[in-house]
Amino acid sequence: MALYYGSWLILLSPLFSFAVIIFGTRVWDLFSRPVQATPAQQAEAHAESDIHYIEKKGPHGEEEVLEDDEDPQVPHLTMGAKVSGYLGILIMALACLYSWILLLNTAGVLSIAPPLPASGVTVLSYNWLVQAGGTASYVVAFHIDTLAIAMMTVVTTVSLLVQFYSQGYMGNSAGYARFFAYLSLFAFSMLDIVFAQNFLVIFVGWELVGLSSYLLIGFWINKAAKPAEDRPSPSNAAIEAFIVNRVGDVGFIIGIMILFAQTGTFDFATLASKTDPHGVSHVFAGNLGLLTLAMILVFCGAIGKSAQVPLHIWLPSAMEGPTPVSALIHAATMVAAGVYMVARTFPLFLAAGPQAFGVVAWVGAITAIFAATIALTQYDLKRILAFSTISQLGYMFVGLGVGGAEYGPGPGMFHLFTHAFFKALLFLCAGSVLHAMHHALHRETQDMRYMGGLAKFMPVTAITFLIATLAISGFPFFSGFYSKDTIIGLTLDRGDYGLYIVTQVTAGLTAFYMLRAYILTFGGKGGAYSGLWGGPYRGAAGVAGVSWGRLEGDKGVAHEGEPEESPRTMTIPLILLAIASIVAGYWFGFFSYVSPGAQVLNFGTIMTDWKTWVGVLVSFLGLGWAYYLYCAVGWVAVGNVVQNNAVLRFLHRVTLHQYYVKEFYALLIRYGVLGLSHVEAAFDTYVVDGIVNGVAGLVRGAGRDLRHVETGRVQSYMVGFFGGVAVLAVLVFVLVTFVK
Amino acid sequence: MGLTLYHFLALGAILFFIGLYGAISKKNAVAVLMGIEIMLNAVNITLVGFSFFNRVKPYSTYLTGQIFAIFIITVAAAEAAVALAMIISIYRKRSTVDVGEIDMMRW
After folding, report:
1. How far is A737 from chain B (nearest CA, A)?
2. Which of A142, A578, B52, B81 holds its CA 20 to 30 A away from the CA of A283?
3. Interface contact B24-A712, CB threshold 8 A
């Protein structure tokens, strides 16, 4: 049992490395840098008022904006920076090893320790506040069970690989040490959610995740927005992520407060027993609607954190962060928090009315198809991946929504588990591509119109990306095939044909846009769009009438170098994740692992079920159609067909602009929020200030007018005095005479 | 029918209002002072009247009203002295004893 009780080490070790890096090695790094001022530094001092750009003179004399936060002061990493990286990786590797031991032990592969009790083990508990009379206590408690172990394995593994990868990717970036500190903090925040025993702790972790994502999305603080590519600046993206999450958190807090007000506890296990419809102390017995409402409000938090439909806009913007951060956010640490939280509170959702899970499933399904249709037409590689994440998260919520008592949180969590590996892989591959493009073009390029033919130059990245593409598309025998088709099949088993059609169509769309992304990036003989690596694949850049795909204000990019395969620090994580992307799906006991007593997947049943093959057929249709359009027909030809057809052109424009959700929110803010604030400002100016100034004016006016009573003449005072006495006398006389 | 309390009260009231009229309407500060003296003496008459007619038995010990009257005469003498001194002082300063013009305490 000591093995289980020691697992707090996993939780606290990233916090430890965060503290050591921030207060130790990072300071060392800062002090050991060369002190002489570089030209860029002088320019910065010159234009100190403008903090958004670090400008330098380009080779042709024009003002060139330094794009990527390449630190001109640090041509190579100091020892302090390197040690920061090694420390973060080493500690994360130990935590990862520990969680794998826990996982293998509880899954029955190893038998170092006795089996974990079904209710789990509380590893750390501290009475933070006890209300007088002991009516309620606020406990900071950490708890592990199989669900937590599965999740912590994902978190530590992906964090480790991302940190390892960042050595190569962030090698020339300012704040290398700080980056590793933030990555550790991010891992700690997520582990706090994973270990949480009650809503109080999970909420703290929830906000810590928000903070760390804010720090990491906005990591490149000097980078400017790119309006031509519809990309915000990282600092704005960070603020957007933070604020959009606040919107969901309002619901989350209200939901927690309803539960606490009714049951007097935050603890998940106690809550589950108190809401159990068959239990003795069923708090919500005659009041199931309130519980349903509370759970839907709690789910609002998950909508924000997991980027579901009304609040999904922060996730594509979050692409402005460094690519390893995107991988971390999308695979393990940030968006998974919402899914994990719903899985963690699964008994509560189960106890609530069916509407609670109905909302979860339908929000997920709508998100899935909504994001998938947007991803069809995007040019930006990372943005496609962002929308594919939103779409896959939708699947996870569908899986949680249809799981029911018989499967538990298994289907949703299984997709989270497999998705973590292939989505991390996709992002790390994208990072590798961007790294290579940066090397070739000397500018940051995420636009697939500049790419093409990269498979020849970077084979490892291309092959691993293809594996992830097939995994996410539900290609047979890859991990996504098992986890996604299970969810799709479950919707049909539940008799919900609407959900089934939506998820099945989305699966086809997913296959299409992922293969499209692969072909446009890696495939063909090379992207000739801007005359890059030759070949007629895209059609020549100078062809008349081919302007629809051109970036605004783009004058073509000079061919400045060849892209090349990324260093080994970057390709090793890719290969490891590619293996995980295939084998993760073969853990058929996952459902009963995370939720004891649940039904288990069976390979034979999967292979003989007709629903599986419908799914495979749809996936093949998507893949084949993408292959046909982008390999056989060619992008330019497809584009011309779309642009010459009014309906297709309209659809293309709408999805390219992401259904104008951002524009809608901008209008909502401008006319709704700001309009309301104008009304409030008017209320303040005219009513509140009016009352205050009115009182003051009244007093002043009264004083101005009444002071004339003070004539200074003694006789007028005498008249007043005796007049007053006379009045009083009359009054007394009247009272005495008539009132008695 | 001899003298009754009401005669005294009527005399006191008439004298009081004569004094009040003088104090309020006269311009000359000395005249105002004289009005005030008349009012004081009107009150004295009232007090003495009450003292005399309210006895329980002849030559009783109920002399409160008369003692009050003596006090008021004393105070009136002091008041007249102070008031005349002020009037002289104001006259030296402003060359007037018109109470209508003495309004330094105005707003």
Report:
1. 20
2. A142
3. no
